[in-house]
């Protein structure tokens, strides 16, 4: 186990009605708040009203930035930064999915930066300060509510980049599982696939890490089990609660501490959602089994075998290692099918015309992956996913 510093400072208020803590939290931020939200789901399900009820108790002033798009754009980030500067905002409240929270993170950093905020995405070492951010996630997926990552799309260059900086981590997050009852089956399933991917990307490392591997498998099984339950009953509180908490622990850094971890499928997917604006988790579900097949070789087979033996409880299964891994991948595909997710890029109207251009951009980030991949390797993974 390598040396590490454990520092995951987001204060989490977890459970039904934890919104009651919001007024006190907001009072500590200052007088002027910016509320950031998406296309209106929070108005339909009543979360917006609950937030306002709390804000009215604070005696402070607030402004709003709405319409944050799934796969948030840098142009929207710029609008938020302008508002923060004009109104001299003291803190930001993000209410929504990962897109809203990610957009808010770069707004918080951009409020202290005078150049083009895309520079902060490309080069996070430029981030020197950030407004405090409180997150109220309304779906379980990205874990942005407890991590230091923001993924932003530049629509001019078709780039989608994940930027990382400790100052981007929310100071507090309010996680009420009932807020996720209204998430559609499609978005719920995509969220499950995203959480699964975060866990798997962290699991596959060139170095062993028994605690991390065992925790990862526990989180993964919980996520998959609860994912099927919420599709059956969207108001299953326990299952929604499990998903909400697993989504945080899948990506809040814990699974990365103590050994080198370098993600592969995410950079490959980010190109798809940058160019075709698809739902992130759906792209991951399509690509992951093909990535596994592609990187399966004599150096990785034991790691994949150990993973599938634990995941599917196949400790005693007598099979050749490669055969076992192929079967394990087949089972994973069957699980995605149970989530009713698309299984091919064709189903998303994606053809091969952009594969080379996308692979070129992804390559920069996957060169250091679990198995380093070149542009032509990535094209082959896209082609297998068609
Ligand atoms: O915009 P509204 O009207 O709120 O509707 C949203 C949106 O249409 C809807 N939704 C959210 N909560 C809801 C709800 N609908 C009904 N009831 C609710 N309670 O769901 C749709 C999708 O929202 P979005 O925020 O885009 O989803 P998600 O949380 O999956 O975020 C995806 C974005 O996060 C990035 C992805 O690449 C993508 O851009 N990621 C961020 C990461 C991070 N910060 O660590 C890591 C991830 O790997 C990922 O890359
Ligand atoms: Zn993800």
From TrEMBL:
Keywords from the named record: Oxidoreductase
Ranges of residues in domain Alcohol dehydrogenase iron-type/glycerol dehydrogenase GldA: 9-177
PROSITE patterns: ADH_IRON_2
EC number: 1.1.1.-
InterPro entries in the record: ADH_Fe/GldA, ADH_Fe_C, ADH_Fe_CS, BDH-like
CDD domains, per the entry: BDH
Class of the enzyme per the UniProt entry, highest EC level: oxidoreductase
One GO CC term on file: cytosol
Gene Ontology terms for molecular function: alcohol dehydrogenase (NADP+) activity; butanol dehydrogenase (NAD+) activity; metal ion binding; methylglyoxal reductase (NADPH) (acetol producing) activity
Domain Fe-containing alcohol dehydrogenase-like C-terminal: 189-385
Protein's UniProt name: NADH-dependent butanol dehydrogenase
């Amino acid at each position: 186990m390598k040396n590490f510093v454990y520092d995951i400072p987001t204060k989490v208020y977890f459970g039904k009605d934890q919104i009651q803590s919001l007024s006190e939290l907001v009072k500590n931020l200052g007088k002027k708040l910016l509320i950031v939200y998406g296309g209106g789901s929070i108005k339909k399900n009543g979360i917006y009203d609950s937030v306002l009820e709390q804000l009215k108790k604070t005696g402070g002033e607030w402004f709003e930035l709405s319409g944050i798009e799934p796969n948030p754009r840098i142009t929207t980030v710029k609008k938020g930064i302008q508002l923060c500067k004009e109104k001299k905002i003291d803190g930001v409240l993000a209410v929504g999915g990962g897109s809203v929270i990610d957009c808010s993170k770069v707004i918080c950093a951009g409020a202290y930066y005078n150049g083009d905020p895309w520079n902060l995405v490309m080069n996070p070492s430029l981030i020197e300060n950030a407004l405090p951010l409180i997150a109220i996630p309304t779906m379980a997926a990205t874990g942005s509510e407890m991590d230091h990552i923001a993924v932003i799309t530049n629509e001019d260059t078709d780039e989608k980049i994940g930027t990382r900086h400790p100052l981007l981590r929310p100071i507090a997050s309010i996680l009420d599982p009932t807020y996720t009852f209204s998430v559609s089956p499609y978005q719920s399933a995509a969220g499950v696939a995203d959480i699964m991917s975060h866990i798997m990307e962290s699991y596959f490392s060139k170095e062993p890490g028994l605690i991390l591997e065992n925790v990862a498998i526990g989180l993964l099984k919980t996520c998959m089990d609860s994912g099927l339950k919420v599709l059956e009953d969207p108001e299953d509180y326990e299952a929604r609660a499990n998903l909400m908490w697993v989504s945080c622990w899948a990506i809040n850094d814990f699974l990365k501490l103590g050994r080198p971890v370098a993600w592969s499928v995410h950079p490959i997917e980010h190109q798809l959602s940058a160019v075709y604006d698809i739902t992130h988790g759906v792209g991951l579900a399509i690509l992951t089994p093909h990535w596994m097949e592609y990187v399966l070789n004599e150096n990785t087979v034991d790691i994949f075998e150990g993973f599938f033996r634990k995941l599917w409880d196949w400790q005693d299964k007598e099979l050749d290692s490669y055969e076992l891994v192929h079967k394990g991948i087949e089972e994973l595909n069957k699980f995605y099918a149970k989530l009713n997710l698309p299984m091919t890029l064709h189903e998303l109207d994606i053809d091969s015309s952009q594969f080379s251009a996308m692979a070129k951009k992804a390559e920069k980030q996957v060169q250091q992956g679990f198995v380093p991949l070149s542009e032509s390797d990535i094209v082959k993974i896209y082609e297998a996913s068609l």
